[in-house]
UniProtKB/TrEMBL annotation:
InterPro entries given in the database record: DUF72, UPF0759_sf
Domain of life: Bacteria
Native organism: Mesopusillimonas faecipullorum
Protein's name in the database: DUF72 domain-containing protein
Membrane-spanning ranges: none
């Protein structure tokens, strides 16, 4: 039976009650000049048939090419960045979003609160921890490692610069905290026990800071296949965290990552479909060049889509929650990838 739960080859956490903690007063929701796409409403019937615990979303939302899919009309990226979220969250299939910008620089409580004010009470955010904490290297603007990061997996900084601001700004709209470990040097990969011990100390601090917030999922994403194994599973289990299924050119295909989720069962599914494997481990620039303006599926990955759909059905069918966020770099247009997944999950024809 467990084999069937993971897509036949095919995971999540129950959705608890909202928190009663104090939050920073959110700014009043202002009228947005960005209008939601009328075309999006044709997906309402299918959205209502999707599992209640499933949340689809994208990675950032400032793409003019999504005209007719997510918004009605032409808007500059700067306008969409500031006001597009209000239109985005009105699409029936889009019930979450991954805030990727936090990976590059921590946000303030007020910035998180501004995001929360743009969406309704049922919406949830997936938020990435800053690389200043999850990258073992300090890097140049070109991404080249310069020197070891003294703040790598620092438990005090992760609470002060990430967990507390997200909690106070997003409150009940916070769904998942993602800790993406950037590609590690051999100095760390050759000492996995030391690495996982350090990760465990940080996760313990995160869980302590989340006391009374069992609904917030803690997920760890890795970019080194060498870490996929029982020691990682044991560390995540010990601290109430799950494995983020990272679909990326640097990682094995989806079916080779599913054993980690099986070993963590039962637990929540957090999946980030970041980059189509055809572009390789460092192919973001090539993917962007091919897919711009991100309004069509130019690099369809039918295999990944099919396995992911089976995995979602198995996991949500067992009453567990699933967060699945997709980048334009996965197939060319994230909203269309989500529409095709919704179609696969409901077996409803696209008109």
């Amino acid at each position: 039976m467990q084999e069937d739960l993971f897509g036949g080859d095919a995971l999540p956490t129950a959705v608890p009650q909202p928190s009663q903690s104090k939050v920073v007063a959110a700014p009043r929701k202002a009228a947005s000049k960005v209008k939601p796409a009328l075309e999006g409403q044709k997906w309402l019937e299918i959205a209502q048939q999707l599992p209640a615990g499933l949340r689809f979303g994208v990675s950032t939302w400032s793409y003019p090419g999504w005209k007719g899919l997510v918004w009605e009309g032409d808007y500059a990226p700067s306008v969409l960045s500031k006001q597009g979220l209000q239109a985005y969250h009105q699409h029936p299939l889009l019930r979450t979003v991954c805030i990727d910008r936090t990976f590059w620089r921590p946000l303030t409580i007020a910035q998180y609160a501004a995001y929360a004010a743009q969406v309704d009470k049922d919406f949830r955010f997936v938020v990435k921890c800053p690389a200043s904490i999850t990258d073992a290297q300090l890097r140049s603007e070109e991404g080249k490692a310069r020197e070891p990061n003294p703040d790598f997996l620092n438990p005090q900084l992760v609470v002060e610069h990430f967990v507390q601001p997200t909690l106070m700004g997003l409150d009940t709209k916070l769904g998942v905290l993602v800790f993406q470990l950037s590609p590690l040097s051999w100095a760390w990969l050759s000492r996995p026990q030391a690495l996982l011990e350090k990760l465990g100390v940080m996760l313990a601090a995160v869980r302590q800071a989340l006391e009374g917030k069992p609904e917030v999922i803690v997920a760890v994403e890795v970019r080194d296949p060498e870490l996929l194994g029982q020691p990682l599973v044991d560390t995540l289990k010990a601290h109430g965290a799950t494995f983020c299924l990272g679909l990326h050119g640097k990682m094995p295909p989806i079916e080779d990552q599913l054993p980690v989720l099986r070993a963590l069962w039962p637990g929540p599914l957090v999946c980030r479909w970041n980059l189509n494997r055809v572009f390789g481990a460092y192919g973001y620039a090539d993917a962007q060049k091919k897919h711009d303006p991100f309004n069509a599926l130019l690099s369809e990955d039918l295999h990944t889509r099919a396995v992911l759909a089976r995995t979602i059905l198995g996991i949500t069918g067992a009453g567990q929650a699933a967060y699945v966020t997709i980048s334009n770099d996965a197939e060319g247009c994230a909203p269309l990838s989500i529409q095709n997944l919704a179609h696969a999950l409901t077996a409803k024809p696209i008109k």
